[in-house]
Amino acid sequence: MDRNEAGSIFTQFLDDLPNGKSTDIHILTDADADGLPAAALLVRSLHADGYTRVTAETRKKFENAWMPEVHARLKQRNPQALLLVDLGARPDELLPGIPTLLIDHHAPFGTPPGATLLTSYGTEPTATSGLLALWCAQAIAPDLANELQWLAGISLLSDLGDKAPFDDLAESKARFGATALKDLTALLNAPRRTAEGDATEALELLLRGASPKQILKSNDPALDALKTAKAEVSEALAVARKAPPRFSTKWTEELGADIIMVRIDTPCQVHPLVAQIWRPRFPKAVIFGVNVGFRPGFVHFAGRAPKGVNLVQFLRNHTPEGADGTFGGGHDQASGGALPVALWNPFVAMLGFGPELQVTESSQTALFA
Ligand SMILES: [Mn+2]
Q1: Within 10 A of 12 (CB to CB), how many other CB atoms are there?
Q2: Does the structure show a pLDDT above 90 at 361?
Q3: Which residues keep their CB under 5 angstroms from ion ligand 1?
Q4: This protein's superkingdom (predicted)?
């Protein structure tokens, strides 16, 4: 997948739309600082190219694109075309009969019937959803795409870090300010990690903003909301990072690494950050942040693996019966899932962990009473 291929898949999809530029296009995107700029790039470039009826929303807390509740909400909008961005790809039906384009970079499980999948997965280096969206935007509104390159810069910084191997990151740092880009990225990632987990205002900022510096200097109330969200997440993380690591060597041979788990208990989505924080201490191990307080009745866990260790494959090989379709999604070195407590306990015992990782429903119920 490269710039040209992405552009031609995107324009082909647009050319086939039922009502041309009057088609009701709705975008559902991930709530992180990759999905948000990707959706902003798509909305703004489609508008610039004359598409008048384009709307976007972000995934809400606990949601994935294949939940019946999510489909019901999407149907209420009556879209004539659907863009699904940075939300993975599964072979299950989305909105039957509605032309659908998936723009994504995660390890796919399959493609929904009749849908088109624009994915960078399998291409090294792997472009983020935001960079794929920039390539799409360049194909239909090149001038605006050039002005909005910082949106792709944010997505690269957020998903791949400061050393992302794409020129667009270095260029947008030089053009729009490295510090501003970094500060805005951190703010955009905050709302989806809070207890409420709603990133709507973060998306709105990106639909309006001219540049990172302009956004950060603005009096926009949405910016204040992001700052409040960031403070909430920092507080939750300060507690979570004190939790001790636990160790298992039971699967070291198959996996190629020891497994470390850090159990935390917070409604905030900081378990991926906890995994990230422990990496430098144990660079050769797979580290999971395990959150027992994120969602009543469930355990959510996010893992990070060293280069050469395929965590997606390991998790898919060991998926407990009854797990939902998100188990083992993500990237080869960054994967995880969510399990109901009744499935979690035998799963984590199977991985070689003792009572310190077992969860009782009653302790959970007490938490949310
Ligand atoms: Mn992404």
Answers
A1: 11
A2: no
A3: 34, 86, 129, 159
A4: Bacteria
